[in-house]
Amino acid sequence: MIEHIVTVLAIAALPISELRGAIPVALGVYGFDPVTAYLLGVMGNLLPVPILLKLLEPLTALLRRSAIGDRLVSWLFARTRARHSAMIERLGAMALVLFVAVPFPATGAWTGALVAHLFGIPFKYAFPLIAVGVSIAGVLVTLATLGVITLFF
Question: 26, 46, 21: which is closest to 36 by C-alpha?
């Protein structure tokens, strides 16, 4: 049982699968009840977020030490801000919550931490916003997975 819990937490903490992979595994493979699957998925998905939020600034500074890295970081920041500033200004904090909450590819806690860093959202605001988004995504994934399991089994 413990190894199943650790596996679900690990799947949820990974950048590609996140809770979109962890919750279906918890429900369909290990037979956890929906509440346990949801809680493990959300907790596991949130595990790397504080680390990411704290490490992105020093990593950016390190990349900026070289000319190529500085150009890359400057380009990425400018491009992202140009493409998404209007949405951030219009929706404010809800933009980050919605970005993380929608369980599509390339959205989630990992990308949400990167977006928070790119837009200069401080840790004390970014982490709770990402946590709310992950919680919403967890509900959506749990409900979708239960629907699929019910449909096929």
Answer: 26
- Please classify residue 68 by burial: count the beta carbons closer than 10 Å to its beta carbon, then call 0-12 exposed, 13-18 middle and 19+ buried: exposed
What is the reported pLDDT for 153?
A: 58
Q: What is the pTM of this model?
A: 0.88
pLDDT in tens, 74-101: 998 888 888 778 877 788 888 999 999 9
Which tokens go with 48? 């790397």
Work out the end-to-end distance of the chain between its first and last CA atoms, rounded to an integer number of angstroms.
23
Tokens of 108: 């989630």
Q: Which helix (H) or strand (E) holds 102?
A: none
Half-sphere exposure of residue 84, counting CA atoms within 13 Å on the CB side? 16
Contact residues for 108 (Cβ-Cβ < 8 A; gap 6+): 15, 18, 19, 20, 45, 100, 134, 137
